[in-house]
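tool_call: predict_structure(chain=1)
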Amino acid sequence: MLFNEYGDTPVLRTYYWANAYTTIGYFQKAKDVTVKDFVRRFSGKLIVNRQHDISYCFVVSSKDWNVYGQDESYKSIRLAIKKALEECGIYTIMLKDKVDYSK
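tool_result:
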């Protein structure tokens, strides 16, 4: 819908998960999911439990995006978001390693 609506204009859509939700990856089988309510993502990977998360969707034409590896794409998007936030006066840092918040 975003690509059809905005055509060649890159779009960054952010959204907030107001309640606890679960998303499953594109290649996961719905019958293997043990939670009652879930949404399927267009990306791969496994189950993600979301509660009060801020998520984003980035849509851009392939002619305007010359980054093709998944890790490189995510890094480029995160750096662009960081720059935009800092231009709004919101200081950010990039973590080098995953943080285990369960401890």
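agent: The chain has two helices and five strands. Proceeding to next step.
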